[in-house]
Every structure is written in C-alpha cells, then in structure tokens.
Amino acid sequence: MYHACMESPLRSALRPLAALSLIGAPLGASTPPAKPISSADIVAAAPAEAWIAVPPEDLLVLDLDGGARVVVALAPGFAPVHVANIRRLARSGWFAGITVNRVQDNYVVQWGDATEKKPLPDGIVGSPPAEYARMAKGLGFRPMAYRDAYAAKVGHAGGWPVASDGQLAWLPHCYGMVGVGRNLAPDTGTGAELYAVIGHGPRHLDRNIALVGRVLSGIEALSALPRGSEALGFYKEGTPRPAIVAARLASDMPAAERPAFELMRSDSQSFADWLAARANRRDDFFIRPAGAIDICNALPPARARR
Amino acid sequence: MYHACMESPLRSALRPLAALSLIGAPLGASTPPAKPISSADIVAAAPAEAWIAVPPEDLLVLDLDGGARVVVALAPGFAPVHVANIRRLARSGWFAGITVNRVQDNYVVQWGDATEKKPLPDGIVGSPPAEYARMAKGLGFRPMAYRDAYAAKVGHAGGWPVASDGQLAWLPHCYGMVGVGRNLAPDTGTGAELYAVIGHGPRHLDRNIALVGRVLSGIEALSALPRGSEALGFYKEGTPRPAIVAARLASDMPAAERPAFELMRSDSQSFADWLAARANRRDDFFIRPAGAIDICNALPPARARR
C-alpha cells in the first residue's frame, strides 16, 4: 500500500484535518496557481503504464497469529537461489508455526524455527551461493545524482532500490528490506530464517548478507512488536512469541483471496517526477528543500491493486 | 544506556549465547591473537576522561503511564530558546497529563496537549526564533571523511551528531532525535509539542524544524507503541492514548532519584577508535567492512552513570 502520509511534513499533532489539507491539496483561495505538485499527487496521478505488477510467485504473504498480514515482495533477480528456497519453504508449509524470536530496536525483527529442530523440506539448497551482489549490467540501473556514504552510486532498477560500484549491484539495507539470517561465513543461510529492517538503514550489512525482498504492506505488525529483553533483542526463553500461522506465495492462494501489488517503474516519468519532488519538497511546510535524498528515503512507491 | 548489542552483526536468531560470544569476544582457541577490537570493546574500555556528563538541567525525564521512562538529552547549544521553553514547561508541571497523539511508522512519535486548550505557563516565548542552524565556529566540529546525501559535511561535536555546510551547523534528523512540532512557517513551535524520530532518518526535515535533543534511554517505550490508524499516524479520536504522567528535569529531582548520563566526547581517542571500528567492522561475521558510515549510524555512545 502506498502511504501518502509518509510524504507529509511534520505537523502539529493536534489538527489532523488541517494537516490533511496540506498534503499536496490546495489550501483554499490563497493557494498560488503554480503550486508545485507533491510526491503524493504524483503517485495518485501516475498512469497505469508507470506501474509494474509484482508477479504472484514473488509475493510472500505472512499471516500472524494476531490476525495481521505482512506482504513481502521477493527479489529473485538479486538472490535467485535463496528466493527459490523461500518459495519451496512456503509451498511445503514449513513456515507455518515458526515464531518471531528477536525484535531489536532500531535494527531488525527476525523470525524462524525457535526449536532449531524442524527438518527442512526436500529440495532446499543447504548452502546457497553468496548472493550478496550481482552484475550491474542488464539490470537497467538508474543512478541518482546524490551522494551516498556506502556506495559509489545509489539509484533504482525494476522498482527496487539499488546500490552499485559500477560493475556490481546489490540491494541496500533500508527500512522494510528483508534478508536471510545466517551464521558465520561462508554460511549464507537457507532462507528458513528471515529478518526485516525496522530502523535506520543498517547499510554496513550490505554485501554481507543476502537480501531477498521488501515488505510492501504490514510492516507495522513487525515494527511495533515489543522489543526483546535479551541480548541482541531476543525474546526471553519461555515468553510467548508472535507466531506465523501461514506463509504462502500469492500464486498458491485462491484467486479471489490473492493480494496483488504494483511497484512504480524505475524508468517511468512518474518515478522521475516523484523522486524530484521527494528531493525538493515545496509544500507550505518546508522552508528549505533538501535538494537531495538518501536511497532509504527513496524506496519506490508500492500500491495494493485491490 | 549504551547498547552493546547495537554493535553486533545479524546473527542466526536461534543461538543467543553463541551469538553473544561473537560480540568482540574471542571465539575460543582458534581466535587469532591480533583480532581487532570491536566498537563495543572500545566503549567498555573507554577511560573516564573520554566521557562527558550531560548536565542534569539538560536531562528531560519523561515517565509514561505504563511505567516506562524516556530520558532525553536536551541541546541548548543548538536551540537555546526552545530548550529554555521546554525547561520552563517541565518545571511548571505543564507536560504532566499530555498524551502521545501520533505514531507514524518509520517516521515519528509525537506528544502534546490533545485538547489544544491547556494554557501555557507564564514566561514561555510564544514565537521563538528559527533555531534550525547555528554558526559552526566555536562548536569544535569534527567532520567525518564520509559522504552524506544531505550536507557537505557530517560529523560530531560535544557528543552530538552534527551536519554542516562549512559556515553553519545543525543537528541531523536521526533515529531517536527529538524535535519541536510546529505549524506553517514562520511558526517554529514553542516546545510544548515534541516528537521523536522512530524510523530511517528523515533528513529532509533538517533545517526545517528545531531539533532540541536526543533520546538516550527508553526509546522503545515510544517506538514500539501501536501505530495510529488515521492520516499521518494520528490515533483515532476517542481511543485511549499513552499519557505522560511526569516530565521533569533531572536537576529538579531528588538527588537519590536523579538519572545521570554521559556521552562519549567527540574529541576523545576512544571516540575516534569507536568510529573507525564502526566504519570497518572486522569481527567473524563480516565479510566486507563498509569502509564508511552514515551519520545516523554513528550516534555517539551514551551510558547511564547509575
């Protein structure tokens, strides 16, 4: 779901209706006619061809015991073997019953088999290759003009945020990105244990772990969980843990129940306009537009199709 | 409180004790003798002179109705008039009974007077100056060598993260930073309504809002709150809201109850070592140290003195 409110400046807490009137909408008769269009307006006005559907086999739908649903877009273009494992784990029902075991503030929420005893289904690649980067060539990478602390270039490709050194390209650790827990290298993890980023982008993890996707919907079901009291944010042994009751690929769900999501195309005019508007906010709140944007504040717009 | 665990790499969720053994500690007999010291080790070993006490009149202690405590270090060096207002509001008891009204995922938690009718105490400056930046000169600013999307230089001064264009300097919007809610410019807010950042640093707000401090302890009492269901993350009208039952300056608390915090000095050798270790993580987990660090991943270590 694209959250228009993510676009908005900080407002006095106390007048939500007044605040709403500022999200790109005219402020009554005094609004100058040439007022720039906000990034939220650009998303709302983007034509159908500016969007690409996430293939249903790339949507991992996690249902939590509390009733919340988290939808993750998988990134087989970046971590094909890990994603194949995750699809197989989902199809075999392996994920059902696993728990959230770790919630570390300003870092990650991590879920997996707390018993460490559940046998993996047949066909899982036990030692996937280190899918930490891929060749940039062929990706359609569109670098932004803005500096980045961690990579020579950052930008977008195919609806994904991307970092690159020119030759290689990789997904950056931004809020909501999903990766594969692992032990010490050369282990890369199987995909049976996953985490989502819930803090300032821990970009030092880039190219050290396989990122496999991005939460498109429901991140708050993870980010608002109680933090774990133990080291690294683990929940204390014996305390109840949030459980994942079902984890399915959208393609395996009945058509009528299947969620569907779209990402804004990185090569669309709408996306170029959106990025420019995000880097140069010009509504009535802003005094000094930044003139730049960090890659983790420039995650491509996503929307539910129904 | 300094969280050593913030330093650690992602670990398989399932072996917290094994994971703990990796935080800068030797891994048994196979550990090479020249193993680099981790940033957590550097914090633990920092001598007394590497720390500066936060003055008790710069510590705002917020007690929530659920029993949690949030401690904010105020930054009078950056926003003196706003901080003076906040001190006056605390001393008059004005903050007691106000509520958290807005929790927007990956953005901010905001608290204030939901009734908008509570009269401000005498002596509050109703229209403070726009304390969005100050002269860099005299600050002791120590720039890092790493790129930043938003500012010409980022670094540290006096235990604070700082961004600068060479002439001016300002606090950056990082996770846990506290700012002053305001309406449209030229209003700058009084300090009666505050927010804390709970997501990827919304650095586009830099120099558009007065930042007045940083949460040193208890951020999880804010960041794990249920997200608001309304636009901009506001709680729905009529739903119960977390309340602030007391907000005091540490200097106004009885000596025996007073919390005390220290920040690592920006000009200490320990801090230089810590920054280098954070930018170049070399424990057994990391394959490829980043060789750089984002300012919001380089918030100076803080610790409770008791």
Morphology call of chain A: globular
Number of strands of chain A: 16
CATH topology of the largest domain in chain A: Cyclophilin
Roughly what fraction of the amino acids of chain A lie in strands?
15-25%
* Continuous helix count of chain A: 5
Poorly predicted parts of chain A: 1-33
* Spatial sequence of strands, sheet with the most strands of chain A: 4-5-12-11-13-3-2-14
In N-to-C order, the SSE pattern of chain A is: HHEEEHEEEEEEEEEEHEEHE
Estimate the mean pLDDT confidence of chain A: 90
**Approximate helicity band of chain A:** 10-25%
- Please indicate the count of domains of chain A: 2
Name the quaternary structure: homodimer
Judged by helices, strands and strand pairing, the structural class of chain A is alpha+beta
- Specify Rg of chain A, calculated over alpha carbons: 20 Å
Largest interface: A-B, 88 and 87 residues
- CATH uppermost class of the largest domain in chain A: Mainly Beta
Distance between the termini of chain A: 10 Å
What is the CATH superfamily of the largest domain in chain A?
A: Cyclophilin-like
User: Mind telling me which CATH architecture of the largest domain in chain A this is?
Assistant: Beta Barrel
Largest sheet of chain A: 8 strands, antiparallel
Summarize the structure in words.
- 2 copies of one chain form a homodimer.
- Chain A has 306 residues and is of the alpha+beta class.
- Chain A folds into 2 domains: 4-52 and 263-304, no CATH class; 55-257, Cyclophilin, CATH 2.40.100.10.
- The first copy, chain A, contains 5 helices and 16 strands.
- The first copy, chain A, has helices spanning 16-20, 39-45, 80-91, 220-223, 269-279; strands at residues 51-53, 59-64, 69-74, 99-103, 108-112, 134-135, 142-143, 153-157, 160-164, 168-170, 177-180, 194-197, 211-217, 244-249, 261-264, 302-304.
- In chain A, the strands form 3 sheets. The first copy, chain A, has an 8-stranded antiparallel sheet. In chain A, strands 6-10-9-8-7 form a 5-stranded antiparallel sheet, with no helix packed on it.
- In chain A, helix 2 packs antiparallel against helix 5 (269-279).
- Chain A is globular, with a radius of gyration of 20 Å.
- Residues 1-33 of chain A have low confidence and may be disordered.
- Chains A and B meet through helix 1, strand 4 and strand 5 of A and helix 1, strand 4 and strand 5 of B.
